[in-house]
């Protein structure tokens, strides 16, 4: 599935990376993902050589990203942009709806099916059914019904998960970064694997910023480029810093 990829220029571009399914392989449970040892070194090097124009844009909360990417504390957007750490370390939080009433509406389904997992985030709630794929339609219908009673959320149907999140998306987070140093004035490159990343592709590839997106894996996407899996992303990052290091 790997296709010709337009070169990512560490010195001139701004790089935005999704996490699960992009930098790391998906796991049966969100806490079971494995971070390739080389990834931390590559991200640290890209951060240095790009003058800091590197950010993680994920559905995970910032504290989880920091845990898995320790000791790095990169600019990042968590919970699809509901919380964001700027390059100078400021934490910006968007107003989000209360998820506790929504959680109460979903608990009966989760408690009656051990294969389901409910993940509570700040202003968002994810219902994972990776261990109970046969319940996909039931999960979607239950979430849709719950959201009819709980305004303020957007429904997202991702890879083995259905999520209620605030009316904020990854594209908003990318656009905010691109108006700030050190991202301002650089061509954005957004890499992601899921439906939640389409908003990031749209911003990166729009007329305002003139960049491009790279879709990871199969499935329809507006991204201009495509790679097969997280291993291919690791190769791309490795090649990018190797090109930078090669004498002219």
UniProtKB/TrEMBL annotation:
One of its GO terms (molecular function) is trehalose-phosphatase activity. It catalyses: alpha,alpha-trehalose 6-phosphate + H2O = alpha,alpha-trehalose + phosphate. It is an enzyme of class 3 (hydrolase). InterPro entries: HAD-like_sf, HAD-SF_hydro_IIB, HAD_sf, OTSB-like, Trehalose_PPase. CDD domains: HAD_TPP. SUPFAM superfamilies: HAD-like (SSF56784). Keywords: Hydrolase, Magnesium, Metal-binding. It comes from the Bacteria. Pfam families: Trehalose_PPase (PF02358). Its EC number is 3.1.3.12. Pathway: Glycan biosynthesis; trehalose biosynthesis. Its cofactor is Mg(2+). Removes the phosphate from trehalose 6-phosphate to produce free trehalose. Belongs to the trehalose phosphatase family. This is Trehalose 6-phosphate phosphatase. The gene is otsB.
